[in-house]
Amino acid sequence: MQHFFLGAATTPVPARWREAFPDGQPLSAANLLARLRVQTPEQSIVWLSADDAQWADALQQVLQSRPGARVVLLSGAPEPQQGLQAVNAGVRAYTHAYGVPGLLQEVATVVEHGGLWVGPELLQRLVGSAYAALAARTPPAEPVPATPVAVNPWQLLSAREAQVARAVSAGCSNKEVADLMFISERTVKAHLGAVFEKLGLRDRLQLVLRLASFPQSPPASEPSP
């Protein structure tokens, strides 16, 4: 996997990015676009800096030149509104420019495997927005028959796991779920981990999309342990 940092002539390359990817190459826009044209999107990750006021234009250039390119936006002061703009524009990750090298490498691994990396606050907003949009969909005039292989995820979960899954899908943080259910955050994490494992999911966004196909009410709650 090759790593390219765009705009090094006008935007300083973060020192921790250099540490994380010692073989990474800072490139001008022209040189980067030339490299991308002879590569598949899976061969490289392009890193942009939000310190460049023209980062959105640069991102559009990259994606027009190489649709499907894997792009990460680094920000010295990440904030949800900019993150939403970046994700909507096509970046695969939005993270802190001064993150430790290990974190930047972890971001790269997630992006390399087709995942999406955003901070916890932005993730919560994305989950809440997705849940609200899916809940507001007009149901079809006639029921759509379920596919024989489709398994209702609620049937795979215990009552407590279903409660946690429903609250998380609505955009609640682990602390908010803990307060609602009168349990510890550690217990919430344990239930959520079990939900992800049982349903074969990686993150909260996948949970929202999975449960949206089965809007039936989850099982009645169990007494607290």
Describe this structure in words.
The protein is elongated and about 55 Å long. Residues 217-225 have low confidence and may be disordered. It folds into two domains: 2-118, Response regulator (Rossmann fold), CATH 3.40.50.2300; 126-212, Winged helix-like DNA-binding domain superfamily/Winged helix DNA-binding domain (Arc Repressor Mutant, subunit A, Orthogonal Bundle), CATH 1.10.10. Helix 4 (80-89) links the parallel strand 4 and strand 5. The chain is an alpha/beta fold and 225 residues long. It has a five-stranded parallel sheet, with helices on both faces. The longest helix is centred in the middle third of the chain and has 16 residues, at 120-135. The protein is built from ten helices and five strands; from the N terminus they run βαβαβαβαβαααααα. Helix 7 packs across helix 9 (185-199).
List the helices and strands and how they pair.
Elements: E1 2-6, H1 15-20, E2 25-27, H2 29-37, E3 44-49, H3 55-65, E4 70-75, H4 80-89, E5 93-96, H5 101-112, H6 120-135, H7 159-169, H8 174-181, H9 185-199, H10 204-212
Parallel strand pairs: 1-2, 1-3, 3-4, 4-5
Query: Any idea of the CATH topology of the largest domain?
Result: Rossmann fold
When the domains are counted, the total is 2
Order of helices and strands: EHEHEHEHEHHHHHH
Overall mean pLDDT score?
79
Count of alpha and pi helical runs: 10
If classified by CATH, what would the architecture of the largest domain be?
3-Layer(aba) Sandwich
Strand content: 5-15%
Task: Name the CATH class of the largest domain.
Answer: Alpha Beta
Uncertain runs with pLDDT below 50, 5 residues or more? 217-225
Strand line-up across the major sheet: 2-1-3-4-5
> Which structural category fits the helices and strands?
alpha/beta
Outline the biggest β-sheet: 5 strands, parallel
